[in-house]
Amino acid sequence: MLAAVAVLLALLVGGLTQVSRQSQGYDATSNRTLAAQGGVVAQQSNATATSVTALMGVIQSQNRPGLQIELDGVVQQSADESVRADNAARATPLGALGVDFAAVFADRAEAMRSLRAAVDGYLGMQPLPVAGTTPAATPTAGGQTTLLSAAQATNRIAAAGALLARADSLYRSVRHTLAAAAGHARLPKSAWVRSPQQWGLGTIATQVDLIATSPSLAPSHYLALRTVRINPPALPTPPGGSTNVSVLTPTTQISVDVVLGNGGTVDEPHGTVHFTLANQSTGATSSKAETVALAPDASQALPTVNFHVKPGATYVLTVSVDLPAGQTQTLGTAVQYPLEVAPAT
């Protein structure tokens, strides 16, 4: 009887030992897989960190379009890295270790979104639309960007830096734990905050002051008429006729189509064009206006404006841009067209 019990105990211990060995082998494989896949993500993240560090040192020397492209780029890169890190963690079910690994890159991506939001909010900029997305999925001119004060921008950027420092600390913990676990897998070093002073409140406050006084980042407004088209079109000028007046075919209605452009560096949520048709015989005038929202370097056709006219009458059509506050450039912002509607035959 005792011999039988001894045999059973020996079999049980042997089975548990075999299970333990198999489990350790599985854990070692999982750890090495995470290190292999996660190491690639970490190296990519290090490259993004280098870009961010360089940007923070020269942000005041950027122009608005270039700065927005840089900010959008690091946000997209860090978001992609977060997705890859999450996929690597899911491919190797390591429990808390995998969760922590993914959290590192999620925090870095969140910090970049916060950095962009703070800079955009301070300068009144917006992320550029992403190619292939619907208009509702991307910010547009006249959107809901909330302007931030210097103190608010400073605090938010510093908070993003603190989040990056926390992510660095968590990554070091994951790296140490992985190296000590089964398989002794090694992740490369990865740190975004190499100089804590760069993300301190004092340094950030100084940087925000430089941004505020940067000539290249100063907002500029420049709404201008790109094209003005009148229908029906003018008839050819007869020999000896005046070229100062456009003669239209007999009609009771003219239509005006305008393309308005934003040559400035800021969104123009209320780009307004005024249309006035003045009858030179009676002095009667008719006025209309159309408003559109325009992003920097964008142009848009306004809705067609129609006016009733009388054959045989002469008019002056004036098309002018309502200049936003701060716009000093007036070239291309107003035009006048003397018109004569040919008599009905």
Entry keywords:
345 residues, alpha+beta, five-stranded mixed sheet, four-stranded antiparallel sheet, 5 helices, 45% helix, 20% strand, elongated
Question: What is shown here, in short?
Answer:
The chain has 345 residues and is an alpha+beta fold. The protein has helices at residues 2-58, 64-91, 96-123, 150-180, 201-212; strands at 223-231, 246-248, 253-262, 268-279, 285-294, 299-301, 305-308, 314-322, 334-341.
Describe this structure in words.
With 345 residues, this protein is an alpha+beta fold. Helices cover 45% and strands 20% of the residues. The chain contains five helices and nine strands; from the N terminus they run αααααβββββββββ. The strands form two sheets. A five-stranded mixed sheet has the order 2-9-8-4-5, with no helix packed on it. Strands 1, 3, 6 and 7 form a four-stranded antiparallel sheet that branches. Strand 4 and strand 5 (285-294) form a beta hairpin. Helix 2 packs antiparallel against helix 3 (96-123), helix 3 (96-123) runs antiparallel to helix 4 and helix 4 packs across helix 5 (201-212). The protein is elongated, with a radius of gyration of 33 Å. The termini are far apart.
